[in-house]
Amino acid sequence: MNEEFEPRIVAFLCRWCAYAGADLAGVSRLEYPPNVTPILVPCSGRVDPQFILLAFKNGADGVFIGGCHTPNDCHYIAGNFKALKRYALLKKYLEQIGINPRRLRLEWISATEGAKFARVMKEFTEELKKLGPLRVR
Amino acid sequence: MTTERVGVFVCHCGRNIAGTVDVKKVVEAVSEHPNVVYATDYKYMCSEPGQNLIREAIMEHRLTAVVVAACTPSMHEETFRKVCSESGLNWYKCEIANIREQCSWVHSEMDKATEKAIKIVYSTIEKVIKNESLAPITIDLEKKCLVIGGGIAGIQAALDVADAGFDVILVEKSPTIGGRMAQLSETFPTLDCAQCILTPRMVAVARHPRIKIYTLSEVIKVDGFVGNFKVWIKKKPRYVDIEKCTMCGECEKVCPVVVPNEFDRGLSLRKAIYIPFPQAVPAAYVIDPDACLGLNPIVCGECIDVCDQKAINYDDKEEIIVENVGAIIVATGYDLYPKEKIAEYGYGKYEDVIDSLQFERLLSSTGPTGGVIRRPSDGKIPESIAFIQCVGSRDANHLEYCSKICCMYTAKHAMMYKHLVPNGQAYVFYIDVRAAGKGYEEFIKRVMEEYGVVYIRGRVSKIYKENGKLIVQSVDTLTGERLEIPVDMVVLAMGMVPSRDNKRLAETLRIPVDQYGFFQEVHPKLRPVESFTSGIFVCGVAQGPKDISETVAQASAAAAKAIALLSKDKIYHEPIIAHVNEELCSGCGVCQSVCPYGAIEVINKVAKVNEVLCEGCGTCVSACPSAAIQLKNFRDEQIISMIQTILSR
Q1: In angstroms, rounded to a whole number, what is the distance separating the alpha carbons of residues B389 and B427?
Q2: What's the pTM?
Q3: CB contact, 8 Å: A73 with chain B?
Q4: Alpha-carbon radius of gyration of chain B
Q5: A46, A85, A103: best mutation site toward chain B, by most B Cβ within 10 Å?
Q6: Model confidence over B533-592: pLDDT tens digits?
Q7: Which residues are registered as beta bridge partners of A106?
C-alpha cells in the first residue's frame, strides 16, 4: 500500500568525514535515492537532540547522523562519542514517545567511504519505505 | 523579518549539474524567497566571467549575502568567498549550496534531483541570511619552542628550530640527552657507529646559544593555546652542580653503592653517583637518590669528601620551572615491549636470552664487554646465536602492528656477530623479511648470501635449556620440518611500544593517541607531523615505529612546521566559535565538561569561552540545557530553519 510513498530524510553530516564521504559518493557517481537532503554541521557532536525531534515533528520520516569513526577519527577529538551517547539515549526516548527508533540512524562514514555512504542511504530509504510515513501529532 | 538582500547564483557546471538538475527551475523557485533580490544561472560560475557576474550583481543589487549553488564547498568555497569579500561582503556572508556532489552526480531523475536541489539552495539561503559577519581572531605569539624528549628526534628538531633563530627549551626526563640512539652500536645499512654520528649533535645542542636543556625533567602541565602555551616543568634534583663538575670521576671511585646500570640494560653495574655514559650531555655526574645511602652525610658522604670542586649538594631540591612557548614538538620515543609478557621465550629465566637493545650494548665498543660478544651467564663467546624476530610484534596476543625496524637491525646484529665471531653460526627466525628502504634490501641480501646467516621462516614456539644449551623449538614453515636448534645465546627482537609516559603526556597536552598509544597525527599522508591541537607537533617513534633516518626526517619536518608558525607576527584563528549569552547562562558547567579542548571555564557562575582555544565543534551547544551557548554561524535557529525549510517543501 505504500508503493508510492517516498520518505523524507534529513541527514546531518559532519564536515570532516561524513560530508566528505558523501562528496566522494558524488565524485564516484554512486547513485542513491534523492529522498535524503543533507545539512552540513561542523561535527556530529553539534547535532542537538532537539534537531532530531524537530525534524520528526516537521514531517521527516527518517533522520540520519553521519560522523567520523570512533575512536580516533573525530576532527574534534571526541565529538563522535558525544553524538553516540545522545543517539543511544534518543533511541530510547523515541520508543517511549511512539516513534520507531529505527527511523533514526547513526553511522560513522569516513572521507574515503563514498560507497558506504551511498549504500547506507539506499538501505535507510528502503527501510523507511517499509516503515511507512511517520505521523506525529 | 530580516532586511538581508540575497543573491543566488546557480552554476550549470557544463552538463555536470544542468544535465540532471533543471537550473532554470531552481532559479525560478528560489526567486520566490522573500530575501532573494537577484537569482541567475550561468554555465561555469567559477570561471572569470562567472565571478564577474557575481561581483557586478553584488554592486548592482546591493547584495548583503550570496549563495552559490555549485560544487562542494571544499572545492570553491574559498574562490567565491574571495569574490564576495573583494566586493565588500564579509567572508562569512557567502555560502555554498552543494548541488553537484550531493545532488546531480548521485541522482538521475531530473524532477526529483531538481526538487532536492531547490531544498538544498533554500536551506542554504536560510543559513546565510542568519550568518554573522565575522573577522578572524588575531593573536600575538611567543617566539619560543618547547621540545619534549632529548633523543635523536628531539635533538634534530631542537637544532633545526634553534638554527632558524628561535629559542628552544629541550626537556629530557633522564640525566642526559641522546636517548635510545646513544645505546646503539652500529646503524644499518651503512654501519655508521651510532655514537660517532650522534655525539657531535649532542655537543651542538649543548653549545647552542639558543637551546636551553632541562634534564631529569618532565612537563607536568600545559595551559594556553597555539602561539601562547604556558608550560610547567618539574625538574628533579641532580645533587651535582653541572657548572662545577669537571667529570674527574673521584666521586665514583669512592661510592660504596653498586646497582645495575640501566644504560647497559643491566649487563653492567654502576655506582650511586654516576654518568650514564662518557659522552653524556650535560657532561656531569648525577646521584641516583634511590640507590644513594640516604643523601645523608652522616651515613656516607664519601663523594662529598673527595669532590675538590664542591660540586655535590645533598640539599638539592626539586624545582618547578614555568616557560612560555609558541610551539611544542613532542619527541618522546619508545620503550621495548615488556619482557615479562613473553614468558615462552625464557627472558628473565635464562640469563643468555637477551633483548635486542642488550645485544646492541654487547656490540658497542663502549659497552659492558668492550665490544666483545660475551654471553651474560659465564662470559663465554657464543659459538651460535639464534635471533628471533617479531617478538611481541605482529602477534594478536601482543602487539598487532609491525615494529618496522627489527628485520633490519636483526640482519645487522647477525652481520656484526659474524664480523666479531667469524666461525660463529647465526640463525634468524622470521615471519617475513621487511626491508623497504634505501639500500635495505641489498643489506639483507648481503647478510643472507655473503655472511652465511641461516634464515629460517617460522615462529619460535618455545625456548628451553638442555645440557647447557638453549634449545630453540620451531617449525620451518617453508619445508614443514620441526626444528630444535641448540644455541649458546638467544637475542629477541622486541617490538617497540610508546614510552611509558606517552599516555600521561597526551592528557597533559590534550592530544590524542592511537589505539596503541602512539601520538595521532592529523592526516597520515598530508599532515604527518601535526597533532590535533594546533601548535603541537609530533615526530619520531612517539608517533609510530620508524628507523633513525625516518625519525630525523620527521623531526626536521616538525621543526619546519614549528618554524613556519613562529615566523609569523600574528596568528589568525577561525572565528566560527562558541559564544555565551550571559543572560541565559546558569553556570551549570555542562559545556565545560563536554569541551574537548578545555576552552570553557565557568567563572562567577557564567561560562566563558576562550576564543583561541575553541575550535568550533559545537559539542557544548548541543549539551547546553538553556540554549545559552551558541556556535557562531551554526546557531540553533539557523539549523532549525534549515530543517524546517527542507521539510516544508
Answers
A1: 11
A2: 0.76
A3: no
A4: 32
A5: A46
A6: 889 999 999 999 999 999 999 999 999 999 999 999 998 888 999 999 999 999 999 999
A7: A65
